[in-house]
Amino acid sequence: MASTSILPFPYPLSPGTDICHIPRIRRILEKDQKHVERFGQRMFSRAELPGFQERYDKVLQQRQTMSAHAPIQGTDDRSNIISDVQYSPYDRELLKLSNWMAGRFAAKEAAKKAMFPHRLAWHKAEVLTLPGRRKPVLVIHTSSPKADSHENEDRDHQQLRRQAAQHSISHDGDYATANVLAVNCFSVFSAIETLEDREEV
Q1: pLDDT for 87-107, tens place per residue?
Q2: Which residues are CB-contacts of 88 (< 8 A; sequence separation ≥ 6)?
Q3: Which of 67, 81, 102, 153 lies in disulfide reach of 25, CB 3.0 to 4.6 Å?
């Protein structure tokens, strides 16, 4: 049977999608402050950290307020207890941060899939709010395919390219989803090499 030649997709565009369970992020945010801040430093770049820290500070402030209004142990006076934690200011701030962070997590994971087979770290996919723009911009940091193929080259000194990508983040119930469309020269080269290898067999 004659082999069928398949032309690769002609444009260097690659999609990626991901879904994140919001309660999973919330459980992380409910842990001690050092644990949460370490996770934030792992997930966010230096440019993204101020946005995370500003939101997390609001959660900490409401947590301290709620603790200050907790009943004194051994007393029956419950007039100063928040009757329903679900609707407390602390819980509202925690939910806001959980939703925000889950959306960013999904966007970063979607960007990693869009850039396959290039390995993309969380810090190399930034969701930034630029001055004068309401919608955040997804910026992907990658080296060129030629530079990436040089195994002996010091990767720390490679010239990185900052490329904007199209993305969309949505929330529904307990889930946050993200879709990314990115420029990915790596996928085009990989497809061409795969087809050439098949033709040689």
Answers
A1: 689 999 999 999 999 999 999
A2: 62, 66, 82
A3: 102
Could you state, in order of their start, the residue ranges of all structural domains in the chain?
13-68+85-200
pTM over 0.85: no
Burial class (CB in 10 A: 0-12, 13-18, 19+), 48: buried
Q: CA dihedral in degrees (126, 132, 135, 138; nearest 10)?
A: -20
∠ at Cα 30 (25, 32), nearest 5°?
Answer: 120
Amino acid code (one letter) for 5: S
CATH 3.90.470.20 describes domain 13-68+85-200: yes
CA 154 from chain centre, in angstroms, equals 27
Read off the amino acid at residue 20: C
Residue range 118-150, pLDDT digits in tens: 888 999 999 998 888 888 999 999 876 554 444
